[in-house]
Amino acid sequence: MGRLLEGFGVGIISYTVPVYIAEISPQNMRGALGSVNQLSVTFGIFLAYLLGMFIPWRLLAVIGALPCTMLIPGLFFIPESPRWLAKMNLTEDCETSLQVLRGFETDITTEVNDIKRAVASSSKRTTISFQELNQKKYRTPLLLGIGLLVLQNLSGINGVLFYASSIFKAAGVTNSDLATCSLGAIQVLATGVTTWLLDRAGRRILLIISTSGMTLCLLAVSVVFFLKDNISQDSNSYYILTMISLVGIVSFVITFSFGMGAIPWLMMSEILPVSIKSLGGSIATLANWLTSFAITMTTNLMLTWSVGGTFLSYMVVSAFTIVFVVLWVPETKGRTLEEIQFSFR
Questions:
Q1: Residues 6+ apart with CB under 8 A from 44
Q2: What Pfam families would the database entry show (predicted)?
Q3: How far is the C-alpha of 179 from the C-alpha of 340, rounded, in Å?
Q4: Domains of the chain (ranges plus CATH)?
Q5: Taking a C-beta distance cutoff of 8 angstroms, is the pair 334, 29 a contact?
Q6: Which of the listed residues 4, 246, 320, 326 has the most CB atoms within 10 Å of its CB?
Q7: Residue 123's pLDDT is what?
């Protein structure tokens, strides 16, 4: 029951947090602030790896409740999203909330007018049906959001992170727990670099670099594991291949964190029109977590079948993701949420 309730809470917060951040952030800081969400996730994973080496899982579960306990009173002090207030026709509250967020010395007239125009041109209703999602102005951003979030997991990242110890053991690493903990620390650093780059380089170019790097790393690791099956464990070649596989796995996590880790959630919160954010975002989040569940449940079986074949499968998905990004994903850097959503009409 505890795991069910925690899953329910994580499912809600994994969607509402990036959307809330995107809706309250200034245009020039939206990328950096949005990626802080993923940075926090990677830091939490690292802490779980680190503490898990020294304390039992029951105590670890109790420690995990502490941030939640701190968050509850904090939520009473944050303002409501101005765009949500505008959608609910609470214009005065919208202006008040935006003024609090931007500072009382800031002129918010232009931004308020943009929000009002976007809300006025969208559906007047606060709810929308599944049938209406098939309209082009809704269908395109929804498919892009779902596509990025599904491909994010199909690349096998959760399988690599959750079964890192087993993978490192298969690679011949003696202290697999320490290697796993180091992997978590590297992921935090790589995501931190992405946070700094997002509003400078742009989303699209980082996605292309990230997916290209992931594809090359997965291909290298796959080839190494296929070769190791035919080499004696006492040979010098086996040791060299072990180091290559270790570098390949670490590089895969770094390149994933460089773009595919944070950007799909950020872009989903940016491209969905305000009128379908609730329904469309819920569908995209559900697709993400269902894919995560499928990868988590199948990775161990696939590793038992063939480690090299597992990484080769993930490589094919990453290669397709490059094509997906190049052909269909737009750049959203330097554009307001209203401009992004209007471009799909």
A1: none
A2: Sugar_tr (PF00083)
A3: 42
A4: 132-344 (1.20.1250.20)
A5: no
A6: 246
A7: 54
